[in-house]
Amino acid sequence: MATQTPFSFLESFVEKLPLPKFTPPAWAVNEAQRRIVLLLNHVLMQESEAMARLVRQKDQVMLVQWRTFYFKLVATPAGLLDLADPQAKPDLVLTVTDESPLALAQAVFKGEKPAVRIEGDVQLAAEVNWLTEHVRWDMEEDLARVIGDVPAHTLSQIARTMRTSLREFLAKTAAFAPGKSAK
Questions:
Q1: Residue 5 pLDDT class (50, 70, 90 cuts)
Q2: How many CB atoms are closer than 10 A to CB 91?
Q3: 3-state DSSP call for residue 120?
Q4: Dist CA 60 CA 74 (whole Å)
Q5: What is the pTM of this model?
Q6: pLDDT value at residue 14
Q7: Residue 88 and residue 93: Cα distance in Å, rounded?
């Protein structure tokens, strides 16, 4: 007997809501993109091999997009990222194919990569793939610089426990997904 999860009902309900089209102002989009670039560069600077790989791809432009959200990044000669000129032709296009924000969030919480369509430069795509596989943000270390080692470790342990519990919950609810039988 196939049973649907409450999440699938909620997702279909939200998709059918007549929500007004909201377009954030250009300045807010630009500022959010700049903050994302700062975070990415912060993480990249903690891994010298990542920076060395990006140096080899300097001046290459990547377009990252999901639904109506997108931004262009360019690899700098320093091995970091910067926002590319909006008119720059991308050498690599990465499109997240999952349209559902809920399904995307579930995949991320399960520790899975979202489905991505890749078009363009093969070598640049290989480097981006290496970065996603090997570069990780050590939030506990950054947090320790601000609040100290013990509180940072405690908060990180709480976050890991919550993540594990959420993953287990999602794994259990996946058994009730459409097309699967309940056990």
A1: low
A2: 20
A3: strand
A4: 6
A5: 0.66
A6: 58
A7: 12
